[in-house]
Each structure stands twice: as structure tokens, then as C-alpha cells.
Amino acid sequence: MSNTNIKKVRTSDLELKDRLVSIQRVTKVTKGGRTFSFSAIVVVGNEDGVVGYGLGKASEVTSAIAKGIEDAKKNLVKIPVINGTIPHKQEFRYGGSLVMVRPAAPGTGIIAGGAMRAVLESVGVKNVLAKSKGSSNPHNLVKATIGALCELRDARSVAQLRGIPMSQVFNG
Fold first, then answer.
1. CA 128/CA 150 separation, integer angstroms
2. CB within 10 Å: which end of the chain, N or C, has fewer?
3. What stretches of 100-154 show up as alpha helix (H) in DSSP?
């Protein structure tokens, strides 16, 4: 996600809610046998346009989740949410996952599954149509969804980029 639209956010004044996307038992084979540990993907957000994801790995489930939350708090980004939905349609590919998110009318709800739903709920989007194609690997889905949301631009940023007033963005 090497994008210029990404706006980093400070965690000091935010009330973040965390959502566990996936937890998996992983194995390391050593000379002495197998060593088991747990890997967790966690999404945190304030449900008002700020979201981040983190990966944690530890020998116990609770430690892995705690590490994931700490990592997620270090990777927060600001997403434009307008009237409970996103400003425009966006597609993004990460690894084998391709995600597509579209704005939806009020009352539609979040039409998305699994990992994408956790990210969209954490952002604070209330109405959105989302589709994932290709790999359903939760790691790649979370990264692709956040990548798509980071590429969204609202009308104010478009006007600023073009150097024109807001009234001309939609007319011109």
C-alpha cells in the first residue's frame, strides 16, 4: 500500500474497539519436535473513519490477540466516510485477493462477509456493497480491504488536488 492518500492517525485521543478476524494455530518443526503457537489478525477502529489492522503471534491465544491489538494501534489510517457510506466505488488487489466496495443507499446495511465485514464495521461504514474474489485468505482480505479504503477520496480532497472550488468538482 504505497499510496499518497494514506493519513496516519494518533491513538492518544481515540476510543478504539477491536475485532478478532482470525486466529490460527501454527507449527514450527524443530529438532526436538513440533512447537505450537497462535497467530491472530485483529482489526481496531473507532467506528468514525479510523481503522488499522495488526498481526500478533504468541504461544497463548490471549497473548497473540494482545500483540495484534498493539500492532493494529500503530497502523491506523483515516478513511473518508460520508453519510454512513463510502464516497465512490473502489477495487483493490492484494496478493490473490481482489476486493470491490461500492456505496449503498441508506438502510442497505453492510453486505460483506467475514474479514471484510470486520474492517468495514470498524471504519464505521453503515451501508456498503462489498464483494471479494479470488483468495479468501483473511490476511490478504484485510489488507486488500484497507488498501481499497485508503484509496478513497472525498470531494474536498479532489477539489484541493485540482486547485478548484468545491462547487466545480461536480459541475465541471
1. 15
2. C
3. 114-123, 138-150
Residues of the chain with pLDDT under 50: 1-2
Contact present, 41 and 138 (Cβ < 8 Å): yes
Q: Write out pLDDT tens, residues 89-106.
A: 999 999 999 999 999 999
Q: Determine contact, residues 115/138, Cβ cutoff 8 Å.
A: yes
Rounded CA separation 58/81 (Å): 35
On the 0-12 / 13-18 / 19+ scale of CB atoms within 10 A, 151 is middle
Q: What is the DSSP letter of 135?
A: -
Rg (CA), the chain: 18
Q: What is the 3-state secondary structure (H, E, C) of 5-43?
A: CCCECCCCCCCCEEEEEEEEEEEEEECCEEEEEEEEEEE
In the three-class reduction of DSSP (H, G, I as helix; E, B as strand; rest coil), residue 114 is classed as helix
